[in-house]
Amino acid sequence: MSQDTKVKTTESNPPAPSKARKSLPVLDPSGDYYYWWLNTMVFPVMYNLIILVCRACFPNLQHSYLMAWLVLDYTSDLLYLLDIVVRFHTGFLEQGILVVDKGRISSRYVRTWSFLLDLASLMPTDVVYLRLGPHTPTLRLNRFLRVPRLFEAFDRTETLTAYPNAFRIAKLMLYIFVVIHWNSCLYFALSRYLGFGRDVWVYPDPAQPGFERLRRQYLYSFYFSTLILTTVGDTPPPAREEEYLFMAGDFLLAVMGFATIMGSISSVIYNMNTADAAFYPDHALVKKYMKLQHVNRKLERRVIDWYQHLQINKKMTNEVAILQHLPERLRAEVAVSVHLSTLSRVQIFQNCEASLLEELVLKLQPQTYSPGEYVCRKGDIGREMYIIREGQLAVVADDGITQYAVLGAGLYFGEISIINIKGNMSGNRRTANIKSLGYSDLFCLSKEDLKEVLSEYPQAQTVMEEKGREILLKMNKLDVNAEAAEITLQEATESRLRGLDQQLDDLQTKFARLLAELESSALKIAYRVERLEWQTREWPMPEDMAEADDEGEPGEGTSKDEEGRASQKGPPDLE
């Protein structure tokens, strides 16, 4: 075997790796795994944010549970370290596509401020414990630099939760607690610096009965800070400059906090009102209109009851407006997941194309009818069909009392009237009275919407007309002779239209030919006129002819030469 053959064989059959390397998968920043990791990181960040400052300001707390704090400290550090590893395995979007190349992910992460903050939050400041002792938790204040992960987790939860307004209020209460907690810790630390019991403003002397307990120290400080930050008053007056500065700073913080709280609560209330206005129609305008127009009490009560039914049972009548900001395809998927099962129950739509049903489901309009309200009456022109989503409707006589049948959820009516079926003896008019027995939720599909959709699906239109024809035959409401006559008339009309189209094409061809001949004749005439102009331009005038007679024969020869040259300058004869 030659050397080249050996090289080719080696390249075509590379040696299999002895053992595949396993690596951590790349996380999608919008996926569930990344979301749950963010929620996990809430605990170490909150631990450092709340407990660390408390340990630094309350020495008894630090000394009493030293081993527990060390375990929790290094557990949180381990989670911080794992968070950096997760960051190196979290993809990012580039032109809408998730990047999973770990080299690019790492290169992008190390160039951000987040990487510097993450490294700074894990600096081993604990080594100073060897010199200062383990009772100096202030050395771990750099752990606060991981707070942005807490905000990211809160933002993601607010987006995903089904109760965003309740979560905003809970988050606001947590922020208030953290601020009061920090302020209470600083108050106790300032009291210890100034001396316990030196005046009425600082914390009382722990030598007094009950004030030496750790729980009492924290609760007293928390209560004192709450009084200051809520500007309730009833606090001892400050006596020293440090106390005045602390009170002034707390008052400024209280003003800013009050404004923040009021703004946040107002925003939550506004969002709730906006959501209600988007989901449910505004009844205040209708009530004011009825009052101004002096509508009778009975009718006004029916309208109010209808609005109340929608509000209590959380029913929506403007789904199209609610979903209008979604992309068309995504809006179709949402509508299909909600209403496709209802639309597929309709016999006339069964076995239709899935794309057709997706188009139709976007056209469904939810409607709610009150007890005793007529959906349609006999003889009305049918412009829409109805699908019963919930409730019961009765087919009643003209007196409105006698019931012939009761229609329940999943049934439909009025579908024949929106399809132009040849030979339909009832035409497009309603053949029965339909009245709602209670509150009924219906889906309405208009004739115009169905026609617009079917214009793109001619095959589906043919199938639906065949199904409608079968239904009319079972109901004995299809005139076969009239249908045949109408079909014959339509075929004759189409034949005449085809003949007219052919004649129109012939006339257009003849007209084009005549127009081409006219343009050719006009061009020839233009060239002839131009040739005559060139020929007559050098003809001698009468005065020149008289002078030529006086000069005699040489002049006559000269004129002939000029006439020859003039004839040579003229345009060529294009004939």
Question: What this model shows, in words?
Answer:
- This protein is α+β, with helices and mostly antiparallel strands and 575 residues long.
- Helices cover 61% and strands 7% of the residues.
- The protein contains 21 helices and 10 strands.
- The chain has helices spanning 3-12, 32-57, 59-64, 66-88, 102-110, 113-121, 129-132, 147-160, 164-194, 214-229, 241-279, 283-292, 297-312, 319-322, 328-343, 354-361, 447-454, 458-474, 480-537, 542-551, 553-569; strands at residues 92-94, 97-99, 365-369, 374-376, 384-390, 393-396, 403-407, 412-413, 433-436, 440-446.
- The strands form 3 sheets. A 4-stranded antiparallel sheet has the order 3-10-5-8.
- α2 crosses α8 (147-160) and α20 packs across α21.
- Mean pLDDT is 81; it is low at 1-20 and 554-560.
Shape: extended
Derived structural class? alpha+beta
Give the strand order of the largest sheet, numbering strands 1, 2, ... along the chain: 3-10-5-8
The termini sit apart by 84 Å
Query: How much helical structure, as a percent, in the residues?
Result: 55-70%
Membrane topology: Multi-pass membrane protein
Protein name: Cyclic nucleotide-gated cation channel alpha-4
Domain Cyclic nucleotide-binding: 348-454
Main location: membrane
